[in-house]
Write a structure and sequence with these properties.
Blueprint: H1 2-12, H2 17-29, E1 54-55, E2 63-64, H3 75-98, H4 101-104, H5 113-117
Antiparallel strand pairs: 1-2
Length: 125
């Protein structure tokens, strides 16, 4: 498919057959990087117990499926971080509600001429 696409693109751009052949061969040979995981090996003997708990991607050091190397967070420490984060969001929301001037003045104040009609509204001349 990649060879066909490169040949069409080469013909559209007015390229020669050399460009066509080099693009087709490079796409065919160098662009495919293989599968994201190693090749599937069909077992010829019974699998060891709990084989599904080991991630073996073909490297010399297979690693456990569940990461037990990293430090784990205890239950109450995780609860404290969760409550702290949620309280920060709640505090930010309450600050936005407290500081919301648009809800206290739902309309724009009118601006009148002559010093905002100070004399006409009963102010000193």
């Amino acid at each position: 498919m990649a060879g066909r696409l490169s040949s069409v693109a080469s013909r559209i751009m007015g390229g020669s057959d050399i460009v066509l052949r080099s693009a087709a061969s490079s796409l065919r040979l160098r662009a495919s990087m293989g599968l994201p995981v190693s090749k599937h090996i069909v077992p010829d003997r019974p699998l060891p117990i709990n084989d599904e708990l080991v991630w073996d991607n073909g490297t010399p050091f297979p690693e456990p499926f569940i990461d037990r190397i990293a430090n784990t967070v205890r239950k109450y420490e995780a609860l404290a971080w969760l409550c702290g984060g949620l309280s920060c969001f709640a505090g930010l929301g309450m600050l936005a509600v407290w500081n919301d001037k648009a809800s206290k003045i739902p309309f724009a104040p009118k601006v009148y001429p002559y010093d905002n009609l100070r004399v006409e509204l009963g102010g000193e001349p």
